[in-house]
Amino acid sequence: MTAERTGRTDGGALLEVAAISKRFGGLHVFDNVSFAIPPGDVLGVIGPNGAGKTTLINVICGMLPPTIGRVRLDGKDMTGKPLHAVSRMGIIRSFQQTNTFRTASVRENISRALRFSGSGPGWDSVAPLIDEFELEPQLDEQSDKLPYGLQKMLGLILACAARPKVLLLDEPAAGLERRERLRVDAFVRHVRTELGCGVLIVEHDMDLVRRLCPRILVLDSGRVLAEGAPADVLARKDVIDAYLGTVDEEAA
After folding, report:
1. How many domains does the chain have?
2. Contact call for residues 28 and 222 (beta carbons, < 8 A)
3. pLDDT (tens digit per residue) in 12-69
4. The domain spanning residue 53 has which CATH number?
5. What secondary structure does DSSP assign to the chain, as a single string?
6. Cα separation of 176 and 180, whole Å?
7. Which Pfam families does the record cross-reference, listed alphabetically (predicted)?
8. Phi and psi at residue 220, in whole multiples of 5°?
9. In contact, 45 and 202? CB cutoff 8 Å
10. Left (φ > 0), alpha (ψ -120 to 50) or beta: where does 218 sit?
11. Using CB atoms within 10 A of its CB, is residue 21 exposed (0-12), middle (13-18) or buried (19+)?
12. CA 30 to mean position of chain CA atoms
């Protein structure tokens, strides 16, 4: 990675997803999905397994091209640009599983992410998160030796250190204990207030979605089933039938 971040400035940016669809041959993963995320806003994306949520993130961040439709960041067309180019423009994603430089120390992981970000406030920008996630005593520990929850938290710090304008979080609470899940809340608050970052969260934890997302979008069988405030959307019978009833049964 080079230190230069072409076209990158501090602060959030408007993400626009315009009528995107993704197909693999005859398989339609999702069709005609549109939304916008202003700076500092949070959008939750929920739906049953196989609804296309992770593929949606992969298309927005440049890991996959859309079949049709456009992705724009502050009016600049990101459509079809590769992952590294989209990342350097400010759209950063996290992953469901831990994603760190496994054999490097926690300190070196963070240093590498800060070098990728280029100019910026440096270590001080992530110090509050290091403290919040109780990673200070593990800074010289090899990252893959950390407990799973701390590896997930380190992955979030790396995403923050890359100075995102828009952050795409793919199941950030997956595999975490209840106390650790509250750390995701602290992380989202930090990137919104300190970076002005827009956030998209794909998540199955409905409590977390209700806490963090003023607006949610429901994907089902590749189509947008509902969009709006959580209290309104999560009360709809078609949403409960498609998704929430099954999740609540499993939780019970």
Report:
1. 1
2. yes
3. 789 999 999 999 988 889 999 999 999 999 999 999 888 889 999 999 999 999 999 9
4. 3.40.50.300
5. --S--TT--SS---EEEEEEEEEETTEEEEEEEEEEE-TT-EEEEE--TTSSHHHHHHHHTTSS--SEEEEEETTEE-TT--HHHHHHHTEEE--SS--S-TTSBHHHHHHHHHHHH-SS-GGGGTHHHHHHTT-GGGTTSBGGGS-HHHHHHHHHHHHHHT--SEEEEESTTTT--HHHHHHHHHHHHHHHHHH--EEEEE-S-HHHHHHH-SEEEEEETTEEEEEE-HHHHTT-HHHIIIIIHHHHHHH-
6. 6
7. ABC_tran, BCA_ABC_TP_C
8. -145, 125
9. yes
10. beta
11. middle
12. 19
Whether residue 135 is contained in a domain is answered as no
Which domain covers residue 173, as residue numbers?
A: 15-100+164-251
- Residue 229 falls within a domain, yes or no? yes
Quote the distance between the C-alpha of residue 153 and its chain's center: 13
Burial letters for 112-126: b for 16+ Cβ neighbours within 10 Å, e otherwise? bbbebbbeeeeeebb
